[in-house]
Amino acid sequence: MAQFDISYSPEVADAQANGRPIVALESTIITHGMPYPQNLETARRVEAEVRDASATPATIAVLDGKLHVGLTDVELEALAKSRDVAKMSRADLAVVMAQGRTGATTVAATMIAAHLAGISVFATGGIGGVHKGAELSFDISADLRELAHTPVSVVAAGAKAILDLPKTLEVLETLGVPVIAYGQDDFPAFWSRSSGLGAPLRMETAQEIANAHRMRAALDLPGGQLVANPIPAAAEIAAEDLAPIIAQAQAEADAQGILGKDVTPFLLGRIFDLTDGKSLEANIALVLNNARLAAGIAQELSSR
Ligand code: PSU
Ligand code: MN
What we know:
Layout: E1 6-8, H1 10-17, E2 22-25, H2 28-33, H3 38-52, E3 56-63, E4 66-69, H4 73-81, E5 86-88, H5 93-98, E6 103-105, H6 107-116, E7 121-123, H7 134-137, H8 142-149, E8 153-156, H9 165-174, E9 179-182, E10 201-203, H10 206-218, E11 225-228, H11 239-255, H12 263-274, H13 278-302
Parallel strand pairs: 1-4, 2-3, 2-7, 5-6, 7-8, 8-11, 9-10, 9-11
Antiparallel strand pairs: 3-4, 3-6
Residues 26, 28-29, 32-33, 89, 106-107, 124-126, 128, 141-143, 261, 264, 268, 283 line the site of pseudouridine-5'-monophosphate (PSU).
């Protein structure tokens, strides 16, 4: 039998020993979602935001084959600077570990690791979803199936507007994933507060979200919840300003034959260039906002 140990950071081990709230954080956003040095700066700020909200951050990654739940600052910096890090979803996690390689976790792989570590709440930017043209490419993120499978509540600013959002919501419904908009009726679209689509569910407080998380477990239903937290108004980019930029980035991806795992990082990188970095500022603001709400949910879950 293959064996593995989880390597916990001292901070996370301490929180676990004392039953304090913990928020899982992904690492693909660091290695594939943002350029250096903003990726490192953001990762540190997100961790600080979780601490300020009285919870403990657990950034998750595989370093030289070892699954880490919580990174030291030295490890975080090394990861943010490294070049050939694998982007790991459910399919890749065991392979990268068995081969002793280094990999960053997507939403799907972060959920798996968080659950193994007994962590119920996870904050990120945006989840993967159904890509535009999926009826031909079949490109549907493994994040969606993971939400149906693994009991972690994921706080995200909706799904990126580079995706086909109506199809993403349909697949989530088919998979039985609760999609809960926080404090508004509309499903948010990452850089913009509204996608123009209604969210299936709405909640106003972290406590309600925690209660629904517990009730799902009590009913023995597999899977987690998607908590869709709109970007703060001051940081949003209007959907109509972004639409032509997204269309251009998508056209370039198609023309260059970008496929599979490379699609999301390619589109994010082009949108960063085409907005002169404005998309990144919005991205940072929304991740911080999600970290705060996730810490509140983690508080509520640990207070019983
Ligand atoms: N959100 C971001 N930047 C990212 C991602 C999300 O702001 O880089 C990553 C997440 O790790 C997500 C992944 O799980 O993109 C989805 O990739 P794919 O579409 O290949 O499943
Ligand atoms: Mn994909």
